[in-house]
Amino acid sequence: MHSGLDHDSLVHHGRDERRGAIASRHWWERPDLAFRDGSLSLGGRDLYELASTLGTPLYVYSRGRVREKLERIHAALEAERIRHRIFYAMKANRYEPLLQHIQSLGLCGADVCSPGEMALATQTGFSEEEISYTGTSVSNADLDAIARHPDVWINCDSLSSLRRLGERCPGRRVGLRINPGLGIGYGVNELLRYSGSKPTKFGIYESQMDEALQIARRFDLSIVGLHVHAGCGYLSPQLAVFDAILDAIGRFSERVGDIDYVNIGGGLGSPLVAADPELDLAQWARSIASRLGHLDAEIWVEPGDFIVKDAGVLLLQVNTVEQKEGVCFIGVDGGFNIHIEPAFYALPMEVVPCRSAALSDESLQRVTVAGNINEALDLWAQDILLPRVAEGDYLALLNGGAYGSSMSSNHCMRGAFSEYLVP
Amino acid sequence: MHSGLDHDSLVHHGRDERRGAIASRHWWERPDLAFRDGSLSLGGRDLYELASTLGTPLYVYSRGRVREKLERIHAALEAERIRHRIFYAMKANRYEPLLQHIQSLGLCGADVCSPGEMALATQTGFSEEEISYTGTSVSNADLDAIARHPDVWINCDSLSSLRRLGERCPGRRVGLRINPGLGIGYGVNELLRYSGSKPTKFGIYESQMDEALQIARRFDLSIVGLHVHAGCGYLSPQLAVFDAILDAIGRFSERVGDIDYVNIGGGLGSPLVAADPELDLAQWARSIASRLGHLDAEIWVEPGDFIVKDAGVLLLQVNTVEQKEGVCFIGVDGGFNIHIEPAFYALPMEVVPCRSAALSDESLQRVTVAGNINEALDLWAQDILLPRVAEGDYLALLNGGAYGSSMSSNHCMRGAFSEYLVP
Description:
The structure is a homodimer.
Chain A: H1 7-12, E1 33-36, E2 39-42, E3 45-46, H2 47-54, E4 58-61, H3 63-79, E5 84-89, H4 96-105, E6 109-112, H5 115-124, E7 131-134, H6 140-147, E8 153-156, H7 159-168, E9 173-179, E10 204-205, H8 209-218, E11 222-227, H9 239-256, E12 261-263, H10 281-292, E13 298-301, H11 305-308, E14 312-324, E15 327-332, H12 341-345, E16 351-353, E17 364-370, E18 379-387, E19 394-397, E20 418-421
Parallel strand pairs in A: 4-20, 5-6, 5-13, 6-7, 7-8, 8-9, 9-10, 9-11, 11-12, 12-13, 15-17
Antiparallel strand pairs in A: 1-2, 2-3, 4-14, 14-15, 14-19, 16-19, 17-18
Helix pairs in contact in A: 3-10, 6-7, 7-8, 9-10
């Protein structure tokens, strides 16, 4: 569980009351995301100025935050002397300057799930050996593309795809994506549950392992790794389930024999609201060390959200402020189609005005922030407290760096937005 | 309520036992969508052949069905001698050949909600006078675009947009989108509730009407119409709420005085499962005649779903058939990102094999159809009965014509699909 006292969260989440002058007013403030002279700033850039200059809707990403998150994972695993590799899950955000930045850091490879992502990873400069491919409902066309990239690491998610890979690439090294029958969503979010008591489409179950091994033998496939995706968005309170999943890996590995890697997937979460405890990376790493240390396998991890979610904000302009039946609606120039998490996954995004001269509690009013799509669910936030804003002001939606632009649609032909990686 | 005996539904939904040889086995069969010699056919084309030739994922649309649905609305309204116009809600599907077909029929105008849609409608050949624009959270940039199209019909959704329109286009004719505080979603689907007991972002409430009229006078705006969007997906059982909404329009019109049109929005639904009653268009038209006849205004209606939803199917190829823990998973080569309604709106799509030699009850098995996106919610259908299918077969997902391609995303770089309007 999160102690509330570890150095890491104090520094990064601005709860350090010793810092005096730069002590935070808000749970989300941190050195590279804070109010400076009344303006919200990310990575040293004034977001109000960026929004006015580049126009909205606008995603802005912090280069430094991405590096810091990668370094934090490395540091936590190194503290436990865990041999490991990180693969960035590019489905979270594939904005090319951001992807290029991540590649150039040299701190991770790329986790891909489709031929398109594999091609983009290669284009970005990742070598085949730095790419891990884990798909589901894998078609023959997908397997043909994988066969043309012999050094990409592939994890098979079903007996069917293992057999069809074997037919195409006998002798290839392969990982098995397994399903331990346990999983974690963001809190209790059923939509995001990857595995659990009800059978899911993902991975090979323990009851299928005999047949998996037979198929591998038939095609001389060398099983070099196991992959498990525990879920997504897990924070410290979910680490107990994470432990149980790691324990299950041990059972599968006994069936397979020596392996080179255990890929524990992604799923590391970021706090979305003030009450969310942070993920205690030190404890996370201790769990891995104690549960998987005996396997003598390298630990691979595939974070997406954790690397880019809180590195990005979505800036929107207020075009309407209007009371309707006692509710103050703040209308903005972007809708749920450019970031679907609040509407479809019930994942909140904190709304912060880009300029806020008066942040006293007295100036707060209760508002509902509404997008520009003709659908009732197109609300960014309901019944939240915001300082008074006017038509023309800009709002920042925090935690906008993951699954925003990458999942956006052109619904109502309202799909236009810009992206900007702060230099 | 739907009587179950009206001629319309018997013919169009294949429940007519008198038709002998072509009597349907399935609730969804109709003359242009049926099995012919064991192959599923739409608009006279064999869908298995189309899928093999053009590749999947593939949307196929029936030209004739679109025309028929438009004609049915016209006929129902004409039977009640209701002066009316239809505006096709292009947000439902803007595939250009389909849009071109709809324009060329000359049976409707276009309902648009953004500058992009307005431009596309114009490009497709709709004149400004044939375009009705109803937005929400309308920006100044949107209003500037509308100002450059002086003959487009605009419905203002807030006092703020009415004021800002007045500043740009004094003297313009304008409609008011009103909110009667009542609304209908697909059944009890909260996500799709447009208005109702809780204040929503849409429209001008009765309590705001005095101010709306003041703003109109200040800018010499001529209020020529009222617009109300009752909800979406309504079928016969929801017509009682529809009646109440129409009654509310009367109250608003007394405040405004003479108007040229009442736009009753879209929302006409299509049956999605066997148990869904059809929308009784004759009763729908009688409701309109009895409740709005005294207003001496033209009735405008903006169907989207109703025109295109059941005119289209989504074809996918099976790549995986695998038992996992007692569940038979059918993996296909497309995921929820190319049609989000099942995953995000809980709107079912009937799954039908494109070839089915053995359709006897004995051959049915219980399956779950899973897409190719690494998310647990990416299931097209759960625990449904299907004839035995094999890897390589094609499946048709019915009711794929609306809000599929138009809301699709490139999530996981799995956004590729083709569309085909049967000639």
